[in-house]
Design goal:
Layout lengths: L11 H16 L3 H5 L9 H24 L9 H11 L4 H19 L4 H4 L2 E3 L5 E3 L2 H16 L11 H18 L8 E5 L5 E4 L6 E5 L1 H8 L20
Length: 241
């Protein structure tokens, strides 16, 4: 997931509300449910929960960097990031919930103390992309909203707030354009039926159009849906890396 730093910063209250919805879903799970598959291939719900908690801690690192001026990588290494997820995945629900509650509180509590100058400080994402600290809010919101759906526990793309869909849809199309730049994917147009959004994937004249609600388009573009609720000839998309 990437970001769109030129947009208005996401309000912290928006991230807090999304987090509350996520935590409510976690509270409704069981120990058995935690061990069952999520919508992400090879990951149980426990993997998703462990990732969400460690992601919150990773964006705490970025905010500390912005606050102190001392460089703190989002993750110490890819190996440690992945091993933390694997180690945390088998934990019972009570531990998963307590971890996510505490990690989310650490992130939001620190975020509420940052000054305007700190929010403008430049940090780097896990991929090495420089962004202002304000962009960390959007990074965290994407993790919460998208992985909430990945839990496959009742929260669907149609439950995403309209403001989230409006913001991520152009980003998702731009990201897919980069992902498919070196492929033979036939150009096509995506059209949201509930807004005036339209965009072309690929280079050259679009051969056909794919339309549907914005949330359904986002879910398909991000690989969270096969696009069966969309209208048009829906191609198979390359896997996200």
């Amino acid at each position: 997931m990437t970001s769109t730093a030129s947009q208005t910063p996401v309000p912290l209250d928006t991230v807090a509300a999304a987090t509350d919805r996520l935590l409510d879903t976690i509270r409704g799970l069981s120990d058995q449910a935690v061990t069952e598959p999520s919508l992400l291939p090879g990951w149980t719900r426990g993997h998703v929960l462990a990732h969400l908690a460690r992601n919150a801690d990773s964006v705490v690192n970025l905010l500390l960097w912005a606050h102190t001026g001392v460089e703190i990588p989002q993750y110490a290494s890819t190996f440690l990031r992945d091993s933390d997820i694997e180690a945390g995945a088998p934990r019972p629900l009570a531990e998963q919930l307590a971890d996510n509650e505490a990690a989310a509180n650490r992130w939001l509590s620190l975020a509420r103390t940052l000054t305007d100058d700190a929010w403008q400080a430049e940090v780097r994402t896990r991929q090495g992309r420089p962004v202002p600290a304000t962009e960390v809010r959007w990074m965290r919101l994407q993790e919460v909203e998208i992985h909430h759906v990945d839990l496959d526990a009742g929260y669907r793309p149609s439950d995403w707030p309209a403001a989230f869909v409006t913001r991520i849809l152009p980003q998702a199309t731009a990201d897919l354009n980069r992902l498919t730049a070196d492929t033979s994917l036939e150009p096509f147009t995506v059209q949201a039926t509930d807004t005036d959004f339209t965009a072309t994937i690929g280079t050259g004249p679009a051969a056909h159009a794919i339309s549907g609600p914005g949330a359904s388009l986002v879910a398909w573009l991000l690989g969270r849906s096969e696009g069966t609720d969309l209208t048009g000839t829906v191609p198979a998309l390359p896997a996200w890396k």
